[in-house]
Model the fold of this input.
Amino acid sequence: MEVKLISYLSPREVLSFLSEMGLSLSLEELMKHISFTFSISGISRACSHQLVRHRMASYTQQSQRYTRISRLIEEAIIPESVRLKGYEEDYRNFLIECQKFYESMINAGIPEEDARFILPNATPTNIIVTMTAKNLYHFFGLRCCYRAQWEIRELADKMLIECRRVAPEMFRKAGPYCFQKGYCEEGKLSCGRIEEVKEKYSKLGYE
Amino acid sequence: MVKLVKLQLVAYTSNIELLIATAMLTTCKPGTPWEHYKELKKKPEIAEKLVKNIPLKHGSVLEHNRIIWIVEGTENEILKLIYENRFFEASKLSDNLWILSANLRAVIDYTASGEDEFRRELLDSIRYLAPNIWRRIKDGS
Done:
């Protein structure tokens, strides 16, 4: 997985413009207007499905109609649990069969848009994501949580690190909701590790 | 009709048209968005060619940016604007002064939905930040 911040609007630039005009805006209000654009590559389709459920954002994803999947075996995402339980070889064999079948359908004249139906959720994808800082806070609140699925949690952490690199003050309070609010909203499902989480997110991207 | 006046551009995402071209290649070409971005940065003429040919109704690639303005207007005018296009965000600065922001797609959709002074000013404000898109809208292409 690779996450790069391609572009963003600098909070400092906006605030200094306003200050020159004798105007001011709270950081919270400013977050509605500042957006961040990420290049995300090498995540699974399972992960991108979770990502695009955050509707207050803009997405441009690599099409499986117009691009051919040629490196499924090399680039498919393999969860750690599959390795730990000794299923990696079977998993890889399945990917090999998938790739072969996909290619044989294309060679038979079946269009990519139909051949792709056989591809698994492990298939890698590339996507551009743009969110305002306010929506990123919500995204981090849900997806940095220890209860979030591991791949999107890893993605959220990497995005947060990128945000803190360029706008450290704006994202100082960003992280899972227990970090943002001081208490866990998950009730009985809580991971019970709030102190560990707070420690992690007070440092992530600042060290 | 929204009668907002005195629109002033405050800030915008840099290289907006380069981002549009990057998004276009991301959908239809192998490679990561970051690789496309770096490649297009070295070859701006390709980015320009892509942007000149994009169907403007092909929305998502136009959304990877943010443009911020200051506008003067009453609360009712701002409410009407947000009602007409929910992708605009507004924050009150003082009595009749507001920070307004949106992405390029929202600007294009909104300016195409009617004709008045505010829409003309809004369209003029993208002239230098997305010159090829602006020209195409002006030419009606």
Observations:
- Helices of chain B lie at 16-28, 33-42, 44-53, 75-84, 104-112, 117-124, 131-139.
- The radius of gyration of chain B is 16 Å.
- DSSP finds seven helices and four strands in chain B.
